[in-house]
């Protein structure tokens, strides 16, 4: 079906400019979640080396046996402070955080209401729990309200949504979701993997952007994207919830502690972000430059103001051929087609980073324009 995925091999650090194994040097990379360019930031690397030397390669243990070091506690405190929440708990990934929360929190008497386009890890986490499951249409508040009415018969209701959706670069209507949650006595959970560190005036995320930091109860996010890009995830929220997760969340209880070097990276990334929002502002400026120039060139870019900029093409073959041709011109982008996105909605997803230069952005737009004309995506 043309959907077999092959992996390109990078022979350099992650960054705006890559060296691909087998030849390609000086490739401009537009498909990492390295939104703030911290994956290879010198201070982040130095913090990792220092943590490695001081605390060792790893813990050879889960947290509750002998796998908790002072740096794990410090990072949890820093994350809670960053999000202005009571406490936080670390996981090996956000996939694990999502796999661990619903089962620990919800019983068969409860209900979870999930956006139909939520990330696979939320879907899997919900599958693991015994709560009653409701799926509402993507960002459709009428449908969410109908499902909330239906779910009144259950003991507790939890609305679960991505803050920013990774395939479309669109942002959940959190204000409306929180209003409905208030009206129908529900809790709100958001996955902030594509928001933490750069959305909102201080980069706190979608809840800050939309002015509902005090209304969202639970946040799950990753350390593996904007926050240094190494690995790791977390849940942050009310202390009793975090206490419960430490007792009951299976990916936390039965998996190794985060390696010190990884903790060091994330901790330094948060320090850099809390010092200044200049990096996030630079990313926002580059995003604006790309979106406006591509729109002027005649392309349709999905979403709004988000560094995930899906160039909508429709046809799967066109997306894959154009992405290949872009790489021939030194621009690394990836085409997405069914089943990753709905049939007939194939696209090339471009991701902007704070460390792209204006010239990088302009070269990308220029290459898209040439390739689009060549393959008939532009007149
Ligand atoms: N949630 C969302 C929305 C994601 O995009 C991802 C990563 O692709 C995850 C969760 C999983 O994050 P991690 O890589 O930390 O497991």
UniProtKB/TrEMBL annotation:
EC number in record: 2.3.1.29
Any GO BP: L-threonine catabolic process
Cofactor field: pyridoxal 5'-phosphate
Single GO cellular component term: mitochondrial matrix
Record SUPFAM superfamilies: PLP-dependent transferases
Signal peptide (UniProt feature, chain positions): none
Keywords in alphabetical order: Acyltransferase, Pyridoxal phosphate, Transferase, Transit peptide
Catalytic activity line of the entry: glycine + acetyl-CoA = (2S)-2-amino-3-oxobutanoate + CoA
Gene3D superfamilies named among the record's database cross-references: Aspartate Aminotransferase, domain 1, Type I PLP-dependent aspartate aminotransferase-like (Major domain)
Protein origin, superkingdom: Eukaryota
UniProt keyword Transferase present: yes
PROSITE patterns, sorted: AA_TRANSFER_CLASS_2
Keyword Disulfide bond: no
The protein's enzyme class: transferase
Domain Aminotransferase class I/classII large: 27-368
Gene Ontology molecular function, alphabetical: glycine C-acetyltransferase activity; pyridoxal phosphate binding
Family the UniProt entry places it in: Belongs to the class-II pyridoxal-phosphate-dependent aminotransferase family.
Protein name listed in UniProt: 2-amino-3-ketobutyrate coenzyme A ligase, mitochondrial
Organism listed in the record: Setophaga kirtlandii (Kirtland's warbler)
């Amino acid at each position: 079906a043309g959907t077999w995925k092959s992996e390109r091999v990078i022979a350099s650090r992650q960054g705006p400019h890559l060296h691909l194994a087998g030849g390609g040097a000086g490739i401009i990379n537009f498909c990492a979640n390295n939104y703030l360019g911290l994956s290879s930031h010198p201070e982040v690397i130095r913090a990792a080396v220092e943590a490695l030397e001081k605390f060792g390669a790893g813990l050879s243990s889960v947290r509750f046996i002998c796998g908790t070091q002072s740096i794990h506690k410090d990072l949890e405190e820093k994350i809670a402070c960053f999000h202005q929440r009571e406490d936080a708990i670390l996981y090996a990934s956000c996939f694990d955080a999502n796999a661990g929360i619903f089962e620990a929190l919800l019983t068969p008497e409860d209900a979870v209401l999930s956006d139909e386009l939520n990330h696979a890890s939320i879907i899997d986490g919900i599958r693991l729990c015994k709560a009653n499951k409701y799926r509402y249409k993507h960002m459709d508040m009428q449908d969410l309200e109908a499902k909330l009415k239906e779910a009144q018969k259950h003991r507790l209701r939890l609305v679960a949504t991505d803050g920013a959706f990774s395939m479309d670069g669109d942002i959940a209507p959190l204000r409306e979701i929180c209003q409905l949650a208030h009206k129908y006595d529900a809790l709100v959970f958001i996955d902030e993997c594509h928001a933490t560190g750069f959305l909102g005036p201080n980069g706190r995320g979608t809840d800050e952007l939309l002015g509902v930091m005090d209304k969202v109860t639970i946040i799950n996010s990753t350390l593996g994207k904007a926050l240094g890009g190494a690995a790791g995830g977390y849940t942050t929220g009310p202390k009793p919830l975090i206490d419960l997760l430490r007792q009951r969340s299976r990916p936390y209880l039965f998996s190794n502690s985060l390696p010190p070097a990884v903790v060091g990276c994330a901790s330094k990334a948060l320090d850099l972000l809390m010092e200044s929002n200049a990096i996030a502002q630079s990313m926002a400026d580059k995003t604006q430059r790309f979106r406006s120039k591509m729109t002027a060139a005649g392309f349709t870019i999905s979403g709004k103001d988000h560094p995930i900029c899906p160039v909508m093409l429709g046809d799967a073959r066109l997306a894959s051929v154009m992405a290949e041709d872009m790489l021939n011109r030194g621009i690394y982008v990836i085409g997405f087609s069914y089943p990753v996105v709905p049939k007939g909605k194939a696209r090339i997803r471009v991701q902007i980073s704070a460390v792209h230069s204006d010239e990088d952005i302009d070269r990308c737009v220029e290459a898209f324009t040439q390739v689009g004309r060549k393959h008939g995506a532009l007149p």
